[in-house]
């Protein structure tokens, strides 16, 4: 029996990728032109194919080294490659870390001069900045103006799902992340607010642009756990690796070769950044984000404390920085700390109307000055719950109430602690175990913790262990073979091949909802095929790297001598 050609691989199905998103709006917010592909290229492409209206917004013009018109034109071409045509440029300055003129992050209302010499937002001949589009006037280069523009954009679109950059090492990334969270917090805490989009935060660097060069392999790898660095926040607060949300990707965004990968072609359009050279880092079998729930009931509550300032607990922002320039993450104190002489050490939360609460999420202080050992949470209906020690690093724990509570107020009391300074960085009260999300629950089959699609194994291998990733569901999953003559799956999720079987299609689905499903195909390939694939990948890698480096040199020579592309 002949094995299928490489180009025939990519026919397996997944409910998330197949379900229609017609009528949904998706907004991606990034600082620089090329970050959109680093952060969310495959997810934007997926939602375009699902029929959603996809928007992309850039907070800066990317004009630190190249003209804004160049970066804007490249972004338009790149996004058009993946089907995105609705683009906003907020028009703020592209700034490097330790810029001598001062980053707008440090200037609430005072306009600063960007490295390109501007004190207000601007666009180009073909692309007006957002403020000018909406108000026929430009915004000042300051933090308050960017927050106002982001808030205006979010409310103007009212996207169902928002993907936003997080605290990468670059000052513009950190500023965009924090100012977005401030804008989102202003919206969520407005009196009577009903707009609660599904929000995902992700990294354009450590899980993408600066990830390992791992594309060329027999099977596409998922995003690996980044190495521990001073500039990383993974492991702090909600950013536990096991808590990441993993989205599957369409065949056009994976495969064995870059020359027919749509993300590579999108990256190639960012010639000024030589972005295509990083495709071997950016293209993976999943794309990774952390979900930020917007249905926290505390946003519409009144909050007070027996001592200390608890206002930060009502903000959408969990992590904060005073300095966005240093490579080391220097977290600002954003937690509630009770006074050491406070005998109560209590936080009081109240609502104007009764709320149904089924889940509580809570986190201690992120900095390690002290540690809460015991907590009591009481409600005005008389229910009292005791919690033991909170994890270190502000990691968030979930406490599922034995039964739903209908209450108007709550009190959180620190019963025992150690250290010189201890407190809380997050409190969440939720009506549902899972956020009522614009993203339906989905599942994805795993092999070696990588998202599996068409998975190649040597023909000498007779068994293969599989597992399942679940998003927003913990229901029982049924895994079975679609053709019993080729093999079967046992109760321990081990795939067994019958003698002579060359491939086996595996399907996983929720027992209570077969419309939530995933399919993979495991191919048993002979040694010759695998070696030929390895050789072809090696040749493509060397050839593309050579050509892209020559193209980079040509691009920068043009810029150096013509001053403008």
CATH topology of the largest domain: Rossmann fold
CATH class of the largest domain: Alpha Beta
- Average pLDDT number: 94
Corresponding CATH architecture of the largest domain: 3-Layer(aba) Sandwich
Head-to-tail CA distance between termini: 54 Å
CATH level-four homologous superfamily name of the largest domain: LmbE-like
Beta-strand content: 25-35%
Strand order of the largest sheet: 3-2-1-4-5-7-6
Radius of gyration: 25 Å
Work out the helicity level.
10-25%
What is the 3D shape?
globular
Largest sheet: 7 strands, mixed
Supply the helix-strand structural class. Answer: alpha+beta
Looking at the chains present, what oligomeric state does this protein adopt? Answer: single chain
Q: What does this 3D model show about the protein?
A:
The chain is of the alpha+beta class and 565 residues long. The chain has three domains: 24-292, 3-Layer(aba) Sandwich (Rossmann fold); 297-430, Jelly Rolls, CATH 2.60.120; 442-525, Sandwich (Immunoglobulin-like), CATH 2.60.40. 22% of the residues lie in helices and 28% in strands. The chain is built from ten helices and 23 strands. The protein has helices at residues 15-18, 35-49, 68-81, 130-135, 143-157, 171-188, 205-209, 262-268, 279-282, 527-562, and strands at 25-30, 53-60, 86-92, 161-165, 198-202, 245-248, 286-292, 302-305, 346-364, 370-379, 384-387, 397-419, 424-430, 442-447, 450-451, 454-458, 463-465, 467-471, 477-481, 487-489, 494-497, 503-510, 517-525. The strands form five sheets. The chain has a seven-stranded mixed beta sheet with strand order 3-2-1-4-5-7-6, sandwiched between helices. Strands 8, 9, 10, 11, 12 and 13 form a six-stranded antiparallel beta sheet that branches. Helix 2 (35-49) links the parallel strand 1 (25-30) and strand 2. Helix 3 (68-81) packs antiparallel against helix 8 (262-268) and helix 5 packs across helix 6. The protein is globular, with a radius of gyration of 25 Å. The chain starts with 14 loop residues before the first helix and ends with a helix.
């Amino acid at each position: 029996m002949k094995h299928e050609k490489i180009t025939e691989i990519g026919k397996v199905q997944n409910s998330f990728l197949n379900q229609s998103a017609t009528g949904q709006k998706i907004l991606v917010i990034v600082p620089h032109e090329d970050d959109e592909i680093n952060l969310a290229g495959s997810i934007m492409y997926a939602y375009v194919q699902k029929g959603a209206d996809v928007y992309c917004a850039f907070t800066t013009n990317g004009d630190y080294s190249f003209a804004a018109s160049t970066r804007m034109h490249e972004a338009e071409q790149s996004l058009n490659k993946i089907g995105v045509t609705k683009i906003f440029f907020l028009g703020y300055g592209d700034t490097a870390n330790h810029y001598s003129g001062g980053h707008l992050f440090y200037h609430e209302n005072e306009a600063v001069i960007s490295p390109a010499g501007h004190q207000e937002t601007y666009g180009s001949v073909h692309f007006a900045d957002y403020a000018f589009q909406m108000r026929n006037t430009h915004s000042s280069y300051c933090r308050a103006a960017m927050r106002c523009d982001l808030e205006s954009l979010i409310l103007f679109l009212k996207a169902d799902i928002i993907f936003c950059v997080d605290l990468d090492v670059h000052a513009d990334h950190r500023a965009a992340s924090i100012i977005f969270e401030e804008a989102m917090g202003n919206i969520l805490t407005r009196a009577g607010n009903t707009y609660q989009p599904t929000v995902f935060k992700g990294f354009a660097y450590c899980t993408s642009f600066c990830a390992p060069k791992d594309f060329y392999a027999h099977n596409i790898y998922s995003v690996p756990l980044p190495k521990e660095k001073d500039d990383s926040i993974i492991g702090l607060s909600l950013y536990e690796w096991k808590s990441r949300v993993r989205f599957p990707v369409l065949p056009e965004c994976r495969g064995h070769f870059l020359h027919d990968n749509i993300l590579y072609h999108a990256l190639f359009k960012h010639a000024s950044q030589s972005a295509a050279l990083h495709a071997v880092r950016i293209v993976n079998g999943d794309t990774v984000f952390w979900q930020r729930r917007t249905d926290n009931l505390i946003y519409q509550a009144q909050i007070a404390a027996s001592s200390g300032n608890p206002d930060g607990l009502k903000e959408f922002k969990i992590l904060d920085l005073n300095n966005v320039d240093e490579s080391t993450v220097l977290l600002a104190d954003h937690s509630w700390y009770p006074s050491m002489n406070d005998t109560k050490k209590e936080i009081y939360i109240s609502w104007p109307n009764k709320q149904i609460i089924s889940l509580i999420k809570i986190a201690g202080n992120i900095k390690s000055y002290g540690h809460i050992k015991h907590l009591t949470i009481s409600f005005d209906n008389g229910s009292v719950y005791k919690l033991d020690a909170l994890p270190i690093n502000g990691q968030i724990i979930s406490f599922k109430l034995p039964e739903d509570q209908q209450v108007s107020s709550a009190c959180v009391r620190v019963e025992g602690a150690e250290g010189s300074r201890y407190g809380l960085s997050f409190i969440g009260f939720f009506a549902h175990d899972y956020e009522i999300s614009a993203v339906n629950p989905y599942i994805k089959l795993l092999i070696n913790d990588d998202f599996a699609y068409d998975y190649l194994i040597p023909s000498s291998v007779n068994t293969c262990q599989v597992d399942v990733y679940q998003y927003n569901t913990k229901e029982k999953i049924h895994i079975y073979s679609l053709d019993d003559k080729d093999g079967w799956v046992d109760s321990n999720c081990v795939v067994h091949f019958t003698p002579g079987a060359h491939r086996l299609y595996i399907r996983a689905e929720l027992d209570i909802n077969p419309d939530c499903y995933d399919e993979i195909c495991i191919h048993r390939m002979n040694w010759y095929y695998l070696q030929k694939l390895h050789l072809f990948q090696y040749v493509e890698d060397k050839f593309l790297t050579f050509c892209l480096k020559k193209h980079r040199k040509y691009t920068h020579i043009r810029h150096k001598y013509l001053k403008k592309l």
